[in-house]
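Let's see one such:

===
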Amino acid sequence: MVEEATGRTIELLRLERAKAERAFINQATYLGKEARKLEKSKLLKEYDLPYAHAQEVNCTNGNYELGLLAELGGDEEDREVILEKQQLVKIEKTKEDCETKLTEVRGTVQSNLWDRYGRVELSVAIEEAESYSEKALETPVSAANKDAYEFRVCYAKRRINDFATALRQWEEWIPDEAKATLDRRLGNLRKQKVIFNERKAEHLVVLKSEGEGMKEGTLQTKPAAQAPIHKIKATSLPKFYSSKRDFHPWKKTWESLQKQGEPTGSMEARRLQLLESVDGRFCRDLSLSTYQTAEDIFRMLEN
């Protein structure tokens, strides 16, 4: 009966379950001991293995139960009547032990991923987003500050979006308490996006008002024609991807193009454009946003 139902004997089914349990326990124990030594990618890869072994444990445990029922001429509805108490206890205990061990493994992996990688990455991302948002909102409303304000708002929005993307990527591994705090801070940043638009309207009103005042006080004389100044966007500047061999040629090209696009010589604009021109991950790894001038950032990159 057993072999007809499962293709294997009871003893073979029991051995298969025992083998699956050993493989699962060994992998879970290894991960518990070695998790702190593993890099992020390796840790995530190793994390998948206990789940695969756990599935095998549950599968072989189920097959063993079906084999016992087939041997005694019953089915799943009669399991509590047909199977001995000791057999039922062992089957249920195998399931519970597997779930308990998986929970332990997940806790170990989560604490390592979060403490060693996620916390730092998200902290840097949220602090950058909040810092540039505050700088944008602190920009005084005037016609002269309109371009600087729009540049800072554009940069702040990118940092907010970067943080939102990183938060989604880490969502599975963020502890509940930290998740609530990060969600709240992201909500505040999204509210600031609305304020950005309101402040932009204020800049436009002032710009229009000052423009009309200049028209009224200007003599009806035709000014001398001036050559137009064409500013370039930060996105058109060459990108640096951390190769030291390319640093000096890149820097020379970048400085030349940046001067053409920002002839006013604004130190803050130069710093922000430089940050935008460095690969995002490399920028975060070196905490370049904490440096106050473009020259400080260049020195860090060169070293």
About this structure: The chain has eleven helices and no strands. The chain has a mean pLDDT of 82.
